[in-house]
Amino acid sequence: MPCQFICPACGARYPTDRAIWRCECGNYLDLDYMPVLDRNLLPDEKSFWRYRQVLPLEDFQSAISFNEGFTPLVPMDFRGMSVLGKLDFMLPTGSFKDRGAAIMISKCKELGIKEIVEDSSGNSACAIAAYCARAKIKAHIYMPAGNSSAKSFQVRAYGAELHLIEGNRIDCANAAIEGATKSYYAAHAWNPYFLHGTKTAIYEIVEQMNWNAPDYYFVPVGSGSQIIGAYLGLQEMKLAGIIDHMPKLMAVQSNKCSPLKDFIEGKETPISSSNPSIAEGIAIHRPVRLKQIIDVVQKTGGEFVTVDDTEIIEALKASFLQGIYIEPTSAAAVAAIKQYEGKIQKDEKIVVSLTGSGLKASSKINDLLSE
Ligand SMILES: [Zn+2]
């Protein structure tokens, strides 16, 4: 029995053989899907496709795959604290977004979609462009003009059509929705299949920790696809009796763009394109799933943490000196750990999600190191 789309705002349901991207009421859609993993049935295959039992696709034979996943979980040290870094920047296009793109674009292929539209600051654009190239789906990518050029080169290289939009991320999203009137809006921020792809990271982490959940999971949060995916995976594993506790989900944002904290404090997040944070990947002023992000963090007893650029640069350099070449956005999550010095017990396990490769931000990194 295939799962259904369900609208968390009005409760409407839709079959998943329809190429829709939001509810008729305008809200985003989720999947009514709560699979249970049977560990005895896991194949001997070191990729995230080993969790196909809990992935919402109908046809795994024609899924778009690089046999990706099972990225290393390695010990790191930050200010004397032991941390496990999840090296998700080692995925095929250099970021964790490949997990979401793999499932979302495979679903697009199942639906017979030939052309899609996506808007992104960079990493999800690269991921979607690459999976579309393999799926032979025409991709239109909308990006704010003036973003990290290496990511726009990568998108073009995969054969996607790049639309550079003047203005901010919201202008870009509006242009993409306008463009999507002619094709399918496969937006990482809206699409629930994307979340069921990103959830594979926490399955891997739990398996790599001998089927134990960490105590804290630090994640940089922009549109929230990583942290909501983590919650979905944890909820499924809790239900399956695989883990006995939920880690605290720690949502990390830049102090220059912190809609989660602002919302809790009843403040409006200002939209300004001047003086942006170096963590550009999480500079999203109005995430589509804002309330859902807040909800999942609070359900785990997690917190909303903000860091400034100086802290991000310190964490970036500390990561580089351990051989870990991440982009500034990922370093935000490392930087946040500092604020818990003395609050997290020595025997508590901390995992940090290292989401994007520094190779896409080399010129920015060069500027930071020369300062
Ligand atoms: Zn609705």
Structure description:
The strands form three sheets. The chain has a six-stranded mixed sheet, sandwiched between helices. A four-stranded parallel sheet has the order 8-7-6-9, sandwiched between helices. The protein is built from twelve helices and 13 strands. β1 (4-6) and β2 form a beta hairpin. By secondary structure, the protein is of the alpha/beta class. It is 34% helix and 17% strand. The chain has helices spanning 97-110, 123-135, 149-157, 169-179, 192-198, 200-208, 225-239, 259-264, 290-299, 309-320, 328-337, 362-370; strands at 4-6, 13-15, 30-32, 73-78, 81-87, 115-119, 138-144, 161-165, 184-185, 216-220, 248-254, 304-307, 350-354. It folds into two domains: 73-95 and 193-370, Rossmann fold (3-Layer(aba) Sandwich), CATH 3.40.50.1100; 97-191, Rossmann fold (3-Layer(aba) Sandwich), CATH 3.40.50. The chain is globular, with a radius of gyration of 19 Å. The structure holds zinc ion. Residues 7, 9-10, 12, 23, 25, 27 line the site of zinc ion (ZN).
